[in-house]
Amino acid sequence: MSFELEFDVVIVGAGGCGLTAAIALHDTWPQATLAVVDKAERACGNTVLSSGSIPAAGTRFQKAVGIHDSPEIFQQDLLGVAGEHEALHLTRALTESSAELVEWLVDRANVRLTLVETYKHIGHRVHRLHSPPSRRGEDLVNDLLAECERRDIPVVWHSTVRELVTSGNRVEGIVYTTPDGEEIRVGARHVVLASNGYAANRRILERFVPEIAQAPYGGGMGSEGEAIEWGEALGAGLANMKAYQAHASLADPHGSLVTWTVVEKGGFIVDRSGRRFGNESIGYSAFAALELQRSGPFWVIADTRVRDTTARGQEEYAELVEHGGVMEGSLEEICRRSGIDPQGLAETLAEVRTSARDGTPDRYGRTDWGLGPLEETLTATRIGPALFHTQGGLKVDVDGRVLRIDGTPIEGLWAGGGAASGISGNRGSLGYMSGNGLLGALGLGYRIGRAIGRNMHAGT
Ligand SMILES: Cc1cc2nc3c(=O)[nH]c(=O)nc-3n(C[C@H](O)[C@H](O)[C@H](O)COP(=O)(O)OP(=O)(O)OC[C@H]3O[C@@H](n4cnc5c(N)ncnc54)[C@H](O)[C@@H]3O)c2cc1C
């Protein structure tokens, strides 16, 4: 078979997974020739859209502020939310290498990360999210791209991978098209699928998660599920296909994220009647399922103190506040402007304040009210649920080798991030914990890059 170009390794997708895999490979075996190919014109995948929060247990950043954490505690937290699922080996491997990943990103990949101490998000018993100081995934990706440039790793934009080239049972390369439609065949001993999941492809959503297929989508448009289709055509297994991350609070109509920190600091969610309809402590992904079962609109109610402390730590929310996306006023003013029923909201507020003051569980079992009872000047933001990304994908081993249904590896094929199975259970939006997306992306990317590097070092 003839190829226009040949590399040791080709990585499909320049998001968190692909760029991390590239740097980890270069770090382990600098002699490897490699290229990263992406269909977008510039970095705009889900890693860019995320808050860049990577969970890790036992890092030196945690130890420096006296936080006791370990992979075992982290695993318990994850399994407590996700329940049993089809990729428990990944939960174990990714938690065990999480501290090493974050310290390596800082020390060897020059990624600026700090421990997030102002929020930890539901399910995490201790502060373990590590994120760029801006809390923006864009900065995370820019740092990874700068490191690729420093190491002379080529990242080729505007080039859509259309198919995998195979010979017998092994993958031998890819075919991509350039912006002017030219087809280029690239040979590679190892192909890494880092092209994310299928949340932008309604046809595949209908097949695996029909309940969310028509919901608004808040992720990158590149997530069209090619990895699933290529893998299945080669006999690959799939795992945790029913899992996804939804979010209960996308600002309506602004479309930006109302961080769940607003809820964690004491906010709550009501519908037009001014009544709550569930325990917000189950988290933003699981709460979205409750919203999807009823008709909106919905509002997150908080006070100016919650708003201002949240905005100080999170730029995207601060911008929403600045652009007038968060109403402020007395209960009567809020209700007049929003159309929320004033009597319903007054009763809800009284009940919630009592629970926050006395520490007694409210009617839904919620006990954690962050900063305590809400004050007189309230805030309200109109919100709705959205799908953010899918968490099911190709069945892989702990280093990202793609496995057939019978568990044997497909030679030459690797997958990580949204292209591979996630660790968020297999029950819709219920099993997702903050950070699971990036742990699967950067965590598997790191393991894939190192495993390929070790293979090449051993001459295989
Ligand atoms: C709004 C939002 C907020 C989030 N916040 C967090 C968070 O704080 N923490 C967390 O852990 N997770 C978060 N997530 C989830 C997380 O962002 C994703 O799980 C993770 O970024 C996936 O990384 P990836 O590298 O697999 O995909 P991406 O970052 O999407 O990269 C995939 C790349 O592959 C390219 N590609 C796709 N198909 C092809 C093809 N055929 N040819 C060439 N290139 C292709 C795409 O253009 C894209 O650039 C969030 C998601 C969203 C949408």
UniProtKB/TrEMBL annotation:
<dbReference type="InterPro" id="IPR003953">
    <property type="entry name" value="FAD-dep_OxRdtase_2_FAD-bd"/>
</dbReference>
<dbReference type="InterPro" id="IPR036188">
    <property type="entry name" value="FAD/NAD-bd_sf"/>
</dbReference>
<dbReference type="InterPro" id="IPR050315">
    <property type="entry name" value="FAD-oxidoreductase_2"/>
</dbReference>
<keyword id="KW-0274">FAD</keyword>
<keyword id="KW-0560">Oxidoreductase</keyword>
<dbReference type="Pfam" id="PF00890">
    <property type="entry name" value="FAD_binding_2"/>
</dbReference>
<feature type="domain" description="FAD-dependent oxidoreductase 2 FAD-binding">
    <location>
        <begin position="8"/>
        <end position="426"/>
    </location>
</feature>
<protein>
    <submittedName>
        <fullName>FAD-dependent oxidoreductase</fullName>
    </submittedName>
</protein>
<keyword id="KW-0285">Flavoprotein</keyword>
<dbReference type="InterPro" id="IPR027477">
    <property type="entry name" value="Succ_DH/fumarate_Rdtase_cat_sf"/>
</dbReference>
